[in-house]
Structure formats: C-alpha cells, structure tokens
Amino acid sequence: MAIQANKASNSNPVGTEQPPLSGRMRHVLSALVQNQPGVLAQVSGMFASRGFNIESLAVSETEDPQLSRIIVVVMGDDRHLEQVRKQLEKIVTVVKVQDFSRVSHVERDLMLIRVNAPREKRPELQAIVQIFRARIVDVGTDSLMIEISGQEQKIQAFIEEMRPYGIQELARTGRIALIRGGRFLDDPESLDHAAPSLAREN
User: Fold this and answer.
1) CATH label of the domain that carries residue 153
2) What is the 3-state secondary structure (H, E, C) of 49-67?
3) Which of 32, 36, 100, 135 could pair with 95 in a Cys bridge, judged by C-beta atoms 3.0 to 4.6 Å apart?
4) Containing structural domain, residue 17
5) Nearby residues of 51 by Cβ (< 8 Å), 6 or more positions away
6) Can you give the pLDDT of all 202 residues of the chain as single tens digits?
7) 200 found inside a domain
C-alpha cells in the first residue's frame, strides 16, 4: 500500500513544540495497520464521518511488509480526536493508533516542483536552491525540476520564493513522522507516561 495526499497550509507550524492543552489544535496521528485492501478507506472514512478535514495523509509500507503506517494531519478538538483515535483502534485491521502531537517527533514533507527557468534566471534559481538545501533533479530547455524536503514551513517558504519565476506544477508527499526514540513506537503503553519527560528533553 502506498499513497500520498497533501493540503498545503501557511498557518500551522510543524516540528516538536508542545501545543496548548485544550481547544482546536493540529494533530499528527500515526496508525499502524495491516497491509490489506480497504484499510485506507476505513481510516479516512472514520475522519470524514465525524466532520474532520484531513490536511495531509501519507501511507506506505513499514519495515514489516505485512504492515503499513498511515500518517494523518488534522485540525480538531482534543476530546473529539481522542474519540476518533479510540474508534480507529476498534477496527480489526488497525494494530495501534498514536497521537504524536504531544510528544517530541521528527516530521518531514517531500516536494517536487517544476519552475520556469530561462537561462538568464538559472544562476538566481541555483542560489535559492542552495540556500534551502534543495537539489535540481531535472533540467529542461526552459524549466528546472527541484526536489526539497523538510518541515512544512520550509516547504511553504520555498514555494513562495518560486512563485515570481512561475510554477508550472508541483507534487507533495504529505507529512510523514516518527517519534524521537524508537522504543516508544514498539511500546504503546509507555507513550503516555514517557511523553512529558521526552518533551522536556527536547
């Protein structure tokens, strides 16, 4: 199973900072699921049926070919998201669901973008690419394709830098994330107890 979907956003910072304790906030949910047809529809349908708008969704196989990891980014109320998380765990094909929002985690987005690049503008574009630690992966007669990865703010900033040159097309993977310290991924019961100390360490 491998699928990606993404909705870019300017207003939601990403990374490992700790959000407010209540109200609508940005949630990054990780669902470990059995690699079977229909699982993605079940998971995404659970959010849709409760009125949540998915900001980003990425799915791919894990180190175990029988399992896939679904990363979903949504905005919502803490209490309602916790209800959704518990309902997801009741689905037979879902192994476990974790909310990364309150623990220190690494989050990344990958983008390919094709921009207008007449020869006289290429030195400027190459300089911007170096500043953002991106890389040129294809050169056309009047365009460049650039690959860049990082947190959402970095990706969005790069898009804004490219707009004056003319963006022909772009594709993004959606956000992927893992908790810092892999031991917590294998021990879901320890996650809630470890989250406060882990957050203080980062």
Assistant:
1) 3.30.70.1150
2) HCCCCEEEEEEEECCCCCE
3) 32
4) 3-106+182-190
5) none
6) 544 454 443 334 334 333 444 467 888 999 999 998 889 998 988 888 888 888 899 999 999 999 999 999 988 888 888 888 888 888 889 999 998 888 889 999 999 999 999 999 999 999 999 999 999 999 999 999 999 999 999 999 999 999 999 999 999 999 999 998 855 444 444 444 333 433 333 3
7) no
Grouping H, G, I as helix, E, B as strand and the rest as coil, residue 195 is helix
40 and 133 co-located in one domain: no
Judgement on whether residues 92 and 114 belong to the same structural domain of the protein? no
Backbone angles phi, psi at 185, to 5 degrees: -70, -30
Q: How far apart are the first and last CA of the chain?
A: 33
Sign, Cα dihedral of 9, 15, 17, 23 = positive
Would you say 141 and 119 are in contact if contact means Cβ atoms under 8 Å apart?
A: no
